[in-house]
Amino acid sequence: MSGIILVGLGIGGKCGGASLTSVLGLSSAYLLHVGNLCLVMGCVTVLLSCAGWYGVTKESRGMLLFVRDVVLEHTFVTLRKNYRGYNEPDDYSTQWNLVMEKLKCCGVNNYTDFSGSSFEMTTGHTYPRGCCKSIGTVTCDGHNVSTNVIYQKGCFHKLLKITKTQSFTLSGGSLGAAAIQLPGILATLLLFIKLG
What we know:
This protein is mainly alpha-helical. The chain has 7 helices and no strands. It has helices at 2-15, 17-24, 32-57, 61-82, 91-103, 118-123, 155-195.
């Protein structure tokens, strides 16, 4: 659904670009590129979703692993390229620091994800302070990779574990919401039929 919504926003942005510029003025012309971005992101999301759906319906482990690997590789490459450091003001680094501190993890797969990254090239550190068990200590120097100093495991496996443990709660909540909405839907359908 999110892919279809993004495609719709992209088409709306491309087709309604002239009216957007006439309403907001010429300064909004850079917003026209957002339509292209939404269109591309929506198409990729729809394709990955269809591949995942096909893998589930056909019980194809290969297709499911392909979808998982594409998402995991994208996250890994983006982390290596965009993560700047612990106290950097950019949103990407701030969000990753928050995830690593809250989940008590380091990187996507493990602490070696930062090896060869732009973070390591600019700071010379093997891992960021967000990976440390105790950030303010002397041993958290960016080079000591002892299990007493940093979290060794990656965040992807932690997120996967949380998703698995919480899936029953999320499913139950969704089914409860559907059960609450069902009488309203039936009443609307009956009114529609009665009105002809």
